[in-house]
C-alpha cells in the first residue's frame, strides 16, 4: 500500500469543499481530509470493538477453564501418594517427614499442597526447610498434572457452577459462529493498517496546521492520508465494515441462559471442545496428533499450507494435520479410529483445493447409508456446491457438475452405472474404503478406473477399519491408491516383518487413535453379559450344529423368545436405560433377531435400520432418534447402522451377538463413542455360554492382535500367525466342525 504513491505537497490551493489540496490534486486537505479521517476512525473503532469483545469472550473462557481445571488437578493430586513427593525431590525428603505427614492426616500430595508452608510447619517434626521442600514438590506435581489432565465437561454436573460457567462462556463463542476467527483476523489487519496512518495524517484535517507544518511533515501526513483513503476504498469494496459490525453483534448475542446453553452443548459438544482447545491453548501431543509418522514426512506435512477460508467449521490440530497429510502426500489412506472426524478432514482438503484454484471438480464415493450425511456435511460446513448422483436425477446431476464444477457425491454401486466425464478430478474421496478391499469386485474396478486417470490429481481413502480380517485387505487398499509409495509394498512383506510393513506404508498411511487425541472424550465401559441357553434355545442350537448351519447357531439364543436369557437381559438393560433417561442402540447381524427384539419391546423402538431402508429414510430415522426427548431405542443391522452414521445421542450400546470381525463391532460402538459424545458409553455384548460365542471371542483376540501389529502403531514387530489370511467362510466351517466335535464328545 505504501509503494507507487506520488507525494507532491509543496504548494496548495483551495478545493471545492473549502479545504486545501496539493497542487497535483492527490492529497485532500481540510474538509475532505476530515471526512476521510472521520471515516477511518469509525472503521478503526469497529475493528477495535471486534477485538475487544473477542478478547473479553476468550478471557471469560480461560478464566472459567482455569477454575474447572483446578478441580481436575486437585482430584489428580488427591490420588497421588506421598511417595511421589520423594520421587520429585530425588530422595531428598526423609522417610520420617512423610510418616509425620501421614500421621497428621496429610496422606496425599493434594492435601500437602492445600496445607501451604504455614500449615505444614504445624506438623510435628516438619521444620521450615522441609515445609518449603514439600510445598515446592507438591507445586511441581500440580504443574505437571495441569499440563496432562483431561478436563471433561460433565453433562450430569449442571448444578455445578464451575461446569456451567465454562459451558456458558464457550456458548458465547460457539453461538457467534465459525466465521468469527476470520472476522477477528480481518479486524486485526484493519486496525494495524489504520492506527499509525490516522495518527500521522491528522495534520491534513486542519488548513492552518497544514500551512504551518514543514515540508517533511506535510509529505508524511499526505502519504498517510492517501493510504487511509486506499484502505477505505478497499474495505468498502469488500464489505469489511459490514463484516465487522456483524461480528460484534454475534459476539454480543450470547451467552444463552444456563439450561439452553447446556442443551446446545449436548447437541454439538465437538464444537465446544474445539473452541476450548483453541482458546485455552490446550497442549497436544504432537507425535500422537501426527500418527507417529517418520520425522521427514512429518516436516513435509507441517510445511504444507492449508487454506480454511471456505470452511465453516474449526479444525482441531490433528484434523488440520490430516488434511495437510492428504495434500502433501497426494494419494493416501487416512485410517483414523472411528469418531475422529475423517469426513471433516476430507472436507478441509476439498475446500483448500477449491479456495486455492487447484481444482474445480471433486468426487466423493461412499456407501448409500452415509450419502445424505456427506451432502449435509459439505453444505453445512463449507461453501462448496454439491451434486447428488443417486436416484432418478443422477445423470442430470453429473452433467450439471461437469459444467459448473463442485463436489459430486455418489455411492459405490451407482458409480458402476455412471459415465464420469473426462474432466480433471482434483480429488477422489473413497469413504469407508473397506468396501473396495477386494480389488476384483465391480465396485473396486469402477473406482480404480477413475483413480488411474492421468488427470486425477489426488486420492483420499477413508476408513477406520483398514484391516477387518487379515493383512491382505490392508495391503490391497494401499496398493489400489496407485501411489509410488504403495508400489514399494511387496505382497509378502506383511507376512515376514510387521515393522518393515509399517515403514513401507508410512508415506501413504496415517492413523490416530481416540485416547491419543480426544482427551475430553468420556470413557467406554465394556461388559460381556454371559447367559445360559434355555432348553428351547439349546435344542435349536444343537439342531443348527447338526445341520452345520453356522448362522443358525449364532441366532439360536433367540429361538425361544419366551424363555430366551439373552432377550431377558436385553429387556433389563433397556428398562435400566429408560429409568435413567438414556438412549439405546441395539445392533444385530440378523434381521430375524431384530424382529424378535422389536416384538419383545412391544414396538417401543425405532427402526430397524437395515440395508433395505433407503438412504434418506435412514438419516430420517437417526434424526428422529436424536431429537426424541429423553429415552429412546433404535434397532439397527450392524453392517448398516454401524457404518458412517453418527449416533452420539446414544450412550448405551447393545450387541445381540459377537461378530466374526472385531472391527465390525468396534465400528458399531464408534457410532456412539465419537467426537461430540458427552456421556460415558456403556457397551453390553450378549453372550451365550457353551456356544459358538465362546469361539468367536477367541477369534476376536487373534484378529485384534493382527490389527495392532500392522495397522496400529506398535513398538514390537511380530510375525503373522499362520491363519492370518483365513477367509470368513473357512473360519465359519472350522468353528462348525469344532462345535460338532465338542457336542459329540459331550464336552
TrEMBL record:
Residues 1-25 are annotated as: Disordered. The keyword Oxidoreductase does not apply. It comes from the Bacteria. Gene3D superfamilies: P-loop containing nucleotide triphosphate hydrolases (3.40.50.300), Tandem AAA-ATPase domain (3.40.50.10810). Keywords: ATP-binding, Helicase, Hydrolase, Nucleotide-binding. InterPro entries: Helicase_ATP-bd, Helicase_C-like, P-loop_NTPase, SNF2-like_sf, SNF2/RAD54-like_C, SNF2_N, SNF2_RAD54_helicase_repair. Residues 323-484 form the Helicase ATP-binding domain. Residues 569-715 form the Helicase C-terminal domain. GO terms for molecular function: ATP binding; helicase activity; hydrolase activity. Residues 1-11 have a biased composition (Basic residues). PANTHER family: DNA EXCISION REPAIR PROTEIN ERCC-6-RELATED, SNF2/RAD54 FAMILY MEMBER. This is DEAD/DEAH box helicase. It comes from Streptomyces mesophilus.
Amino acid at each position: 500500500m505504501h509503494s507507487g504513491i506520488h507525494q507532491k505537497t509543496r504548494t496548495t490551493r483551495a478545493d471545492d469543499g473549502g479545504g486545501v489540496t496539493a497542487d497535483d490534486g492527490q492529497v485532500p486537505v481540510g474538509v475532505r481530509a476530515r471526512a476521510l479521517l472521520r471515516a477511518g476512525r469509525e472503521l478503526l473503532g469497529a475493528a477495535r470493538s471486534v477485538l475487544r469483545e473477542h478478547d473479553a469472550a476468550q478471557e471469560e473462557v480461560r478464566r472459567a477453564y482455569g477454575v474447572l481445571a483446578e478441580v481436575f488437578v486437585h482430584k489428580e493430586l488427591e490420588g497421588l501418594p506421598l511417595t511421589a513427593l520423594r520421587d520429585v525431590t530425588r530422595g531428598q525428603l526423609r522417610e520420617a517427614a512423610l510418616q509425620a505427614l501421614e500421621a497428621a492426616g496429610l496422606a496425599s500430595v493434594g492435601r500437602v499442597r492445600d496445607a501451604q508452608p504455614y500449615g505444614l510447619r504445624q506438623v510435628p517434626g516438619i521444620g521450615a526447610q522441609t515445609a518449603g521442600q514439600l510445598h515446592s514438590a507438591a507445586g511441581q506435581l500440580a504443574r505437571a498434572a495441569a499440563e496432562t489432565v483431561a478436563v471433561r465437561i460433565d453433562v450430569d454436573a449442571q448444578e455445578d457452577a464451575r461446569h456451567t460457567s465454562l459451558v456458558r462462556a464457550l456458548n458465547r463463542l460457539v453461538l457467534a459462529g465459525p466465521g468469527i476467527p476470520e472476522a477477528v483476523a480481518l479486524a486485526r489487519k484493519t486496525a494495524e493498517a489504520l492506527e499509525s496512518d490516522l495518527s500521522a495524517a491528522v495534520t491534513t484535517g486542519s488548513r492552518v496546521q497544514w500551512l504551518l507544518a514543514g515540508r517533511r511533515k506535510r509529505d508524511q501526513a499526505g502519504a498517510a492520508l492517501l493510504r487511509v483513503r486506499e484502505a477505505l476504498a478497499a474495505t468498502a469494496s469488500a464489505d469489511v465494515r459490514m463484516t465487522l459490525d456483524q461480528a460484534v453483534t454475534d459476539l454480543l448475542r450470547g451467552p444463552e441462559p444456563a439450561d439452553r446453553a447446556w442443551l446446545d452443548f449436548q447437541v454439538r459438544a465437538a464444537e465446544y471442545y474445539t473452541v476450548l482447545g483453541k482458546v485455552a491453548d490446550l497442549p497436544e501431543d504432537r507425535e500422537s496428533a501426527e500418527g507417529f509418522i517418520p520425522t521427514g514426512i512429518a516436516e513435509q506435512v507441517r510445511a504444507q499450507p492449508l487454506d480454511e477460508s471456505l470452511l465453516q467449521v474449526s479444525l482441531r490440530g490433528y484434523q488440520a494435520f490430516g488434511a495437510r497429510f492428504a495434500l502433501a502426500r497426494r494419494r493416501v489412506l487416512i485410517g483414523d479410529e472411528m469418531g475422529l472426524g475423517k469426513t471433516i478432514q476430507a472436507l478441509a482438503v476439498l475446500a483448500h483445493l477449491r479456495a486455492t484454484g487447484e481444482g474445480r471438480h471433486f468426487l466423493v464415493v461412499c456407501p448409500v447409508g452415509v450419502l445424505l450425511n456427506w451432502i449435509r456435511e459439505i453444505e453445512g460446513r463449507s461453501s462448496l456446491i454439491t451434486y447428488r448422483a443417486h436416484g432418478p436425477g443422477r445423470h442430470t446431476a453429473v452433467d450439471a457438475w461437469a459444467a459448473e464444477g463442485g463436489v459430486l457425491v455418489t455411492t459405490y454401486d451407482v458409480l458402476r452405472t455412471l459415465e464420469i466425464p473426462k474432466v480433471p478430478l482434483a480429488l477422489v474421496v473413497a469413504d469407508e474404503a473397506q468396501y473396495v478391499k477386494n480389488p476384483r469386485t465391480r465396485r473396486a474396478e469402477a473406482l480404480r478406473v477413475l483413480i488411474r486417470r492421468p488427470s486425477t490429481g489426488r486420492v483420499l481413502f477413508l476408513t477406520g477399519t483398514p484391516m477387518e480380517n487379515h493383512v491382505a485387505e490392508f495391503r490391497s487398499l494401499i496398493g489400489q491408491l496407485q501411489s509410488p509409495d504403495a508400489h514399494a509394498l511387496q505382497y509378502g512383506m506383511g507376512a515376514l516383518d510387521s515393522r518393515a510393513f509399517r515403514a513401507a506404508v508410512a508415506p501413504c498411511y496415517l492413523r490416530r487413535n481416540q485416547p491419543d487425541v480426544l482427551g475430553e472424550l468420556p470413557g467406554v465401559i465394556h461388559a460381556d453379559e454371559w447367559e445360559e441357553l434355555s432348553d428351547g434355545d439349546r435344542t435349536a442350537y444343537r439342531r443348527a450344529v447338526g445341520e452345520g448351519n453356522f448362522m443358525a447357531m449364532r441366532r439360536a439364543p433367540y429361538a425361544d423368545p419366551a424363555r430366551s436369557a439373552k432377550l431377558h437381559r436385553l429387556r433389563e438393560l433397556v428398562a435400566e436405560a429408560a429409568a435413567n433417561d438414556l438412549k439405546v442402540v441395539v445392533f444385530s447381524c440378523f434381521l430375524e433377531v431384530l424382529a424378535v427384539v422389536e416384538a419383545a419391546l412391544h414396538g417401543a423402538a425405532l427402526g430397524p435400520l437395515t440395508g433395505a431402508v433407503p438412504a434418506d429414510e435412514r438419516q430420517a430415522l437417526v434424526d428422529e432418534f436424536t431429537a426424541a426427548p429423553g429415552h429412546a431405542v433404535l434397532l439397527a443391522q450392524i453392517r448398516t447402522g454401524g457404518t458412517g452414521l453418527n449416533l452420539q445421542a446414544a450412550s448405551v450400546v447393545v450387541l445381540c451377538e459377537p461378530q466374526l470381525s472385531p472391527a465390525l463391532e468396534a465400528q458399531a460402538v464408534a457410532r456412539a463413542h465419537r467426537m461430540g459424545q458427552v456421556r460415558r458409553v456403556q457397551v453390553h455384548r450378549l453372550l451365550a455360554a457353551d456356544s459358538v460365542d465362546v469361539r468367536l471371542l477367541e477369534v476376536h483376540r487373534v484378529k485384534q492382535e493382527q490389527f495392532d501389529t500392522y495397522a496400529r502403531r506398535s513398538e514390537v514387530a511380530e510375525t503373522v500367525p499362520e491363519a492370518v489370511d483365513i477367509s470368513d467362510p473357512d473360519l465359519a466351517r472350522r468353528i462348525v466342525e469344532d462345535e460338532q466335535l465338542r457336542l459329540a464328545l459331550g464336552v
